Amino acid sequence: PPDHPAPPAVGAHSNWPGYPPYRARPARINGMTVAALVLGVAWLFWIGSAFALGFGYVARQQIRERGEGGWGMATAGVVLGWVAFGLLGLSIAVAIAEPAPY
Fold this sequence. Notes:
mainly alpha
């Protein structure tokens, strides 16, 4: 006979030492999260970054309301959108600070 009981069946809650508690995966991933991530990566001259921010924030709200998956992708889209706008601001600041070449 083993020293420990058998592991729980799939779908059962686990309190067995050494195993994390079982959590079912969300039913589906929110579609706006994928759009936010893709637009954040392919920033398209900052137009895509604006859409990535919008889709990311809307997707995060929908995920909270509906219990869907994709929180990480939505957050990545938001972060990439803000990074792109930060780079835009930095490039404008550098362009203003440079002396004219004449």
